[in-house]
Design a protein that fits this description.
Blueprint (H helix, E strand, L loop, with lengths): L1 H39 L5 H7 L3 H11 L3 E3 L5 E3 L1 H4 L8 H13 L6 H7 L1 H15 L15 H27 L4 H17 L3 H11 L5 H6 L5 H5 L2 H12 L20 H36 L14
Antiparallel strand pairs: 1-2
């Protein structure tokens, strides 16, 4: 009678432990399938994907370079070309258009793409507005039923583990001290022993269920699957210049250059050093501006005297 009661009790507890594991597998498999279907239906716009990768500004700069609006020198300074200075020409997409307008606000001073991305408030507002608009179109992915943040489920699980371990100790002690009589009691003892042996494996089974039903990061995989077409279309040299300009946050500040006066009024040497630094920056900007104008004049000379200013190809926008 003792072995029979022990076998029934152990079987019931084992079923109570593995039942939620099976339910967890069923619910997670449904959530995983729904998540994959929602992500498969998403059509990410290339600039939105680039923005999710934190490289939307570099992609916009790459498009401007490809279309002949910008030229970036070896030090990462961006300059407008003749096409870029034409106010009638603007890209069709809002992000390259916003970046072009930001560079125009600094013209003729050289400015880095990274400085605009970090410090140009109007460009940052337009970039944020574009992302908010595109993010609103993304589906809301369902949460896993046992995901992080489910405090109630965590507490119930901890209490259940404590009770099961207590039962396992008591049942194990009764099983070891019992002496089965006959084949029937021996079989019941084997059933109880198998049930007790299966209980410690429940945590491993639950872990295997979570691993097999984990959807991963399908949206992130889609975002990282391919670079922006404009960046991919650039040759290696121009792509390096675009990325260098995007990583430069404070060298070329365009019209926003600020000289910090920290010298005391009575310190003549520090005043002279500040003036020398100011003159150096002004000379550098004038040099780069004149270099850009000479570059544009050389392009016009190569086009020939018969080329009319208005005969340029219409803008893609």
């Amino acid at each position: 009678m003792r072995q029979f009661a022990l076998a029934v009790l152990v079987s019931a507890v084992t079923a109570a432990v593995y039942g939620p594991v099976a339910l967890l597998w069923w619910r997670r498999a449904r959530v995983r399938g729904r998540t994959l279907r929602l992500v498969a239906a998403v059509e990410l716009e290339p600039y939105h994907a680039a923005q999710l990768r934190q490289e939307a500004t570099e992609a916009a700069a790459a498009e401007l370079v490809l279309d002949g609006y910008l030229r970036i020198d070896g030090e990462g300074a961006a300059f407008l070309t003749g096409r870029g200075r034409d106010p009638a020409r603007t890209p069709a997409h809002p992000l390259p258009a916003a970046l072009l307008e930001a560079v125009r606000r600094h013209d003729p001073q050289p400015v880095s793409i990274g400085w605009i991305d970090r410090s140009d408030e109007e460009y940052r507002q337009r970039r944020s507005a574009y992302r908010s608009e595109r993010d609103a179109a993304l589906p809301v992915l369902p949460r896993m039923p046992d995901g992080p943040g489910n405090l109630f489920l965590t507490c119930v699980t901890c209490a259940g583990i404590a009770l099961v371990m207590l039962f396992w100790l008591l049942a194990g002690a009764l099983l070891v001290t019992g002496r089965p009589q006959g084949l029937r009691e021996g079989a019941l003892t084997v059933v109880a022993a198998l049930g007790l042996a299966a209980l410690p494996l429940a945590a491993k089974a639950a872990g295997a269920v979570r691993e097999r039903t984990d959807p991963g990061d399908p949206l992130g995989d889609m975002v990282r699957s391919a670079p922006h077409p404009a960046l991919a279309a650039l040759d290696e040299e121009r792509r390096t210049l675009v990325l260098r300009s995007g990583a430069d946050l404070d060298t070329w500040r365009g019209a926003d250059t600020v000289v910090h006066e920290e010298a005391d009024e009575g310190a003549d040497d520090e005043d002279d050093a500040w003036l020398d630094d100011k003159v150096w920056w002004e000379d550098a900007y004038e040099y780069r501006a004149s270099d850009e104008h000479e570059h544009d004049r050389a392009d016009q000379d190569q086009d020939g005297p018969d080329a009319a200013p208005g005969a340029a190809a219409p803008s893609s926008g």
